[in-house]
Amino acid sequence: MNDKNEGNFDEVRCSSRRTVLRLFLPLLLILPAPLLAQTNRTKPYIPASDGVVLQLVPPATDPRVRQFEQLRNDFNAHPQDAAKAVLLAQAYVDYGRSTGDARYLGRAMAVVQPFMAAPAPPVPVMLVHATIQQSRHFFQASRDELSQILKRDPANVQALLTLATIAMVQGDHDLANRLCVDLTNNAGNFMGMICTASLRSLSGQGEQAYALLTYVEDPGPKAPPAIVAWIEGLMADTAARMGNAATADVHFKKALRLTPGDNFLLADYGEFLIDQGRTKEAIDLVGNDTQSDTSFLVLVTAEKALGSPKAKADMAEMDARFQSMDQRGDHVFMREEASYLLHVEHDPKSALNLARQNWQVQHAPKDVRVYLEAALATGDPAAAKPALDFIDRTHLKDVTIDPLVAQLRVLKPARSPSAVSTSASRSFSSGSGR
Amino acid sequence: MKLRRLWYAVFATVMSLSPLSALAHKESDAYLSLRTDTAHDHVMHGQWDIALRDLDYAIGLDENHDGAITWKEVKDKRSAIENYALARMQVKGDGLTCDMQPTGQKIDEHTDGAYVVILFDAVCDKNIPSKLTIDYRLMYDLDPYHRGIVTIHSGDKIAGAVLGPSNPVASINLREPDRWGEFKSFVTDGIWHIWTGIDHILFLLSLLLPAVLVMRRTDPRSGGWRVRGALSESSGLLMALAPASTRYRWEPVSTFWPACLDVIKIVSAFSLSHSITLSLAVLGYVHLPSRLVESGIALSVMVAALNNVYPLVNKRVWLIAFAFGFIHGLGFASALSGLQLPADAMAASLGGFSVGVEIGQEAIVLAFLPIAYLVRKTHFYQVAMLRWGSVLIVVIAAGWFVQRAFDILIPGFSAFIPN
Fold first, then answer.
1. What angle do CA A353, B31, A12 make, to 5 degrees?
2. Per the structure, how many domains does chain A have?
3. Residue B170: pLDDT above 70?
4. What residues does each domain of chain B span?
5. How close B37 comes to chain A (CA, Å)?
6. Per the count of CB atoms within 10 A, which of A246, A331, B16, B161 is most buried?
7. Which of A20, A224, A321 sits opposite B7 (nearest CB)?
8. CA B31, A342, A97: angle at the middle one, nearest 5?
9. Is A288 a domain residue?
10. Which of A24, A52, A57, A198 to mutate to test the interface with B (most CBs of B within 10 A)?
11. Domain limits at A290?
């Protein structure tokens, strides 16, 4: 047996599930493989009849499924062909991205991973690999790989754009700016403008950003709808950031018309609607998409804000979903969960703790916002210092953030930050390896 | 053309962008729980929940490709599911792989959809696992982000681990090594081995049958070919088989103790020699091909029974017991090596098994001796049991010998006589 690979079980006495959870907490922070008690709330059963439908999966009539089949067969026939592997993996990533089904990222990874063992893997393989890492919020690993790609192929548009995106999410605006220049030089004004506009939108220059985006809003009939929707989404975000709610709404709706059911857009628009107090519309928007965790989170938040009688049951469901995510040990949902803890569960201390962990990974406006909100809710402005420093440095402006900054600046640091940081009532391991 | 490639690059990127939000669905997980059983130390009861979506991807569950997996589709694929999953996980007790036996199939709902529930027993053979190891390989080639969330329930303790392709193995010390428990378990095993090992029993019986009798040589000079005693009752067939038996007759022993002493000598000699080879073989010093050992045992039964029909050795039957004990010991050893033994439990298992074999054999002797002593004077015992019985044993053993030595299946033989 390979001792290197040998993990260890955490061991505790158990009298009830609650006890288990509590006793696990100190261990979770130490051990690499934490776990909690099982989260399935039902008991295993035997379905009443043969015809009971247990699970929906993509049907064979779905053209994307047929495409998978074809690419898969192609790849299986030539298992050494990196190009065929990349095509298949990219199809999985695309499908996973548009449906939000993370399983497809794993399937894509399984296809490209063997090719990564080569001393210098083909650039397309590395690109897919880096893209998957980025989608799973393994930003540092993704950055390293993209930098390697750019060393070999400095004009690689996809690498430049992906790296720029990561730089923006992580708040590394200097790097993002350099990459936008490189994009302009290598891919032309169209890409350069979108890149620059995105960066300006994050740097308190919303009007310039919006103006830039209007130049590229209509990229012509040959552009795939996904790209137009992407630009519309950027415009919606930028408009919302400046407080132009009506304009933002128009862009969101345009984007959704182009890519109906897009998981990220639904969540983004849903959060916008809740911010606008249009909770009923938010519920209508995501009500049919409850299998998606992001959509369900919008639904629960809206129900709670409305005081809906369904809120209680759906909160229990959401708790269970968070718990089963926690069991895995890797947390890509920290920002969302912090926001949930704060606005739905009204547990600001846990929310702050989680927002702080999330801050180690990403610095997008929504990350800033939940961090400041949690610090404010706990009455601990000192806790928010990293985020406030970040705003000073980047000049981030956002109508959902500016008032928080103002309130925090008025408050004097009252207590030592440790008073908050030691009081985690929920269970999270520090994001190891990231 | 250049524009087209650009669009593709942008498209590919955009499709994988949006890190501003998390993915909407959890990645692939399976839930494995194992529970110790206080009544059956060797067995752990397992429950393994695997997402139907994962199984559909791995082996295909949606038979009619309509996008809906029904209970019937899952039921029909039960053995395929079990074969797929159970081959991708090992439960080991003290380093030895436990046998996975599926016991049921159910369905459970988790937060991200329906899961098939594989109920199974991990049967850890003779060894009571003190250190339990899980080697988890499900989906390792299909989804590197798959995780097996493992929970172990051992009495009032609960423990767990998250396993996946990059970290597939975890171990837990369930209990202090229970050497006494293992010893007892091997004692039982030894007893059963001799009780169910009909060749060992027949060998022993063949040696013990004459112990309550003494052989008197008839006077060859005066008697000539006189037919008397046991032989006088024999049929023509038996006459043909036993022409030389005219030169002796059996008489019952007059007191119990000489017979008892005889039995003790036989049994002790047998025990001594088979213990020697059992130990040597288990410890790896001696190894004989099982074909040789098994046909040797059959031969020993033949010889022992034949000696009752053509007595060559009478006073020193214990010599036969001692000589053939060596080959029987090798037979016991192969039974023991068929069970897996953890290295550090070797002493407990070997000792326990030997003690069990002795107890089993003593029990046979204790049951046999008083009854044989009581009926020793009867015609039934002297003729039907000793002579006919021995002839029957010779026939059976000869059958075994042919089957085992030449690897021939005698038609109908195995149906009546266990091998």
1. 60
2. 4
3. yes
4. 27-177, 180-220+228-416
5. 17
6. B161
7. A224
8. 55
9. yes
10. A57
11. 261-316
